[in-house]
Amino acid sequence: MHSIEQLQYLVNKAIADTKYTEQPAELYEPISYLMQLGGKRMRPVLVLIATEIFDGNVLKALDAAIGIELFHNFTLMHDDIMDKAPLRRGKPTVHAKWNESAAILSGDVMFVEAYKLMIKVDDSILREVLAIFSDTASGVCQGQQADMNFEKRDDVSLPEYLEMIRQKTAVLLAGSMQIGALIGGAVPDQANLIYEFGENLGLAFQLQDDILDVYGNPEKFGKQVGGDILSNKKTFMLIKAKELATGNTKSDLDTWLNSSDDPLAKIKAITSIYNLLEVRKLAEIEMEEYVNKALRALDMISVNRSKKDLLRGFAEQLLIREN
User: Fold this and answer.
1) What is the CATH number of domain 1-153?
2) Is residue 263 within 8 Å of residue 230, measured between CB atoms?
3) Strand-pair partners of 209
């Protein structure tokens, strides 16, 4: 088995070696620019890990892995436009560096390029892989739309929220692993188990993200702490707080949600309400339940335990982020 670092190296090298059509430059340069911004390459690495767990050759899965990363970055490019985000990993976003039209069209081409890489899998699994990839892509878009719809609603329930993050975040992790397992030669029930592992891991990861947005160390978290509070983003923390708050606490929460005059005061006040209602503890319990579901699915996969230990390590690396 390769280490995670070795697989990240393979993915980064393949991305660096990929050459796109040179003309028109405004269409293809943004793709290279965004793909070179880096990141942990979590999703393509999961494709390769899942392939290798079932004794497959990671080099045969590399095209599909890069296809997954292209699709993921396509969603980031379009998300940045919708969010009007000026920066991505500390660099100007594509629409800020070029323009929105260029970013939309380049993103569309990234989606096409992802499919072109995905169809390079063995013919015996091609239909199944494309079905998984297509369902995954639709799910991510549905999750993004639900997230946008939530911005206009004050009555989002926890089941609705959990379904949204399942689609927006978890299905891509799960689909990446299922595709990798099929390339590695896994039988359907085993590929389904690794999908279950990835889906629950993705849900746990997003809940951890909710927690770190409030309580994380900004230097280690890599994002502005309190950003979700300032934007009134529907997260597990906020939905649970609105559900539990009564009396003066409810009034205070409503007042601060409608305030934008003093950002630091708003973050401090709403964090204090979260502390009072102990919603961090509730989020951590929910997160741990999904981690345990993921590990139970992993335990049921019929491969050598030492191979599964790599996935256990990946889960720990993913979830145990310093705060």
Assistant:
1) 1.10.600.10
2) yes
3) none
Measured in residues, the chain has a length of: 323
Neighbours of 79 (CB within 10 A): 17
Compute the C-alpha angle 318/41/308, nearest 5°.
50
Same CATH fold assignment for domains 1-153 and 187-323 = yes
Please name which of 250, 230, 238 lies closest in space to residue 211, comparing C-alpha atoms: 238
Spatial CA neighbour of 12 closest among 35, 33, 43: 35
What is the phi/psi pair of residue 72, to 5°? -60, -45
Angle between helices 188-215 and 171-183 (to 10 degrees): 150
DSSP 8-class letter at 98? S
Q: What CA–CA distance (Å, rounded) separates 184 from 198?
A: 16
Q: pLDDT tens, 74-96?
A: 999 999 999 888 888 888 999 99
Sites in the chain below the pLDDT cut of 50: 323
Is-above-0.85 flag for pTM? yes
With beta carbons less than 8 A apart as the criterion, state whether 287 and 295 touch. Answer: no
Tokens of 248: 């003066």
187-323 sits in which CATH class? mainly alpha
Domain boundaries, the chain: 1-153, 187-323
End-to-end CA distance of the chain: 31
